[in-house]
Xanthine dehydrogenase family protein subunit M
Amino acid sequence: MRPFRFESAADVEGAVATVAEHPAGAYLAGGTNLVDLMKLEVTEPDLLVDVRTLTSDRVEELPDGGLRIGAAVTNSALAGHPLVRERYPVLSQALLAGASGQLRNLATTGGNLLQRTRCVYFQDVTTPCNKREPGSGCAALEGFHREHAIFGASRSCIATHPSDMAVALAALDAVVHVRGPGGQRRIPLAELHRLPGDVPQDDTVLEHGELITAVDLPPADWAVRSRYRKARDRASFAFALVSVAAALDVQDGVVRDVRLALGGVAHKPWRASLAEDRLRGAAADAENFRAAADAELAEARTLPENEFKVPLARNMILGALLELAGDQR
Ligand SMILES: Cc1cc2nc3c(=O)[nH]c(=O)nc-3n(C[C@H](O)[C@H](O)[C@H](O)COP(=O)(O)OP(=O)(O)OC[C@H]3O[C@@H](n4cnc5c(N)ncnc54)[C@H](O)[C@@H]3O)c2cc1C
Ligand code: SF4
């Protein structure tokens, strides 16, 4: 590991100013992803600023009925929060499907959103990787890509975003609060992460030095009927091959509202808008659920080793919707 400086800032403004002034500076939260990448020499910050005690570690009710999640709230605390479990079960389930108990006790909301891809070539500095070293090539295209993207990939990068929590937050229309050198801004979760295009080194739309301070969940009556399903190689301690965050609101047998987001399939949590559009106002039955999943997956572009993700995603969307519809009969 390379030498680096470690600082604790007095407040958010100080932390933002310090990191913004250092091109190779970074924020440290739980460290469960950043420190691993430093040990692998994938990333080599010369300065770390501890933000665990700077941002809120509380989940607060908002006047409109939504919730505000401080960036330092741990994945364990968020998953177990009574209001999250009651009003947004998909979020609690997504968090509990990720990592392990020990990791969730350390991992934070801000750090979870900004964790880097688990592409094996990204983590191996002896291989070409455009995300780690722009212009060097993408070893996954001709190599091991069973876990890689089927939506929105480019010739530059076919990596997926690994967060389970972010998939649930995308389905819930969450909004991210950010503080940067130029002030504050709010970013819809669905717009925080980006597709790789020609600049795969940028995972998100954040500028260097911007700090996530909180995430808002809007009020959502429909979210009480929500589920997270995750397919993975082992029953625990494994990233998603495909995951589905689903919410379904049925009245008199008709879909009044539906939210669907997929994980493990793209460089960002993939909101399945085509499927959602097809379902709103339609009868809540297996035929329509299947047609909606097919409409979304018609846009998939596969490679030889990840073709299996298409039928897997289709079955998972169908299963989640049938389960939610069954609960409302
Ligand atoms: C063995 C293993 C298995 C795992 N399995 C899963 C899984 O199945 N599903 C899953 O979703 N995750 C999984 N994870 C990943 C884990 O969830 C992340 O490592 C964790 O959420 C990152 O949070 P952190 O607070 O430790 O972030 P850190 O490692 O501290 O930081 C991560 C990144 O975010 C930046 N950062 C941190 N906080 C902020 C902030 N407030 N504003 C701006 N930038 C910030 C850091 O600079 C860094 O770039 C696994 C990890 C391991 C090691
Ligand atoms: S898929 Fe992306 S992260 Fe993986 S090797 Fe290619 S460029 Fe790197």
User: Anything to note?
Assistant: The mean pLDDT is 97. Residues 10 and 54 are 8 Å apart (CA to CA). The first helix runs from residue 12 to 21.
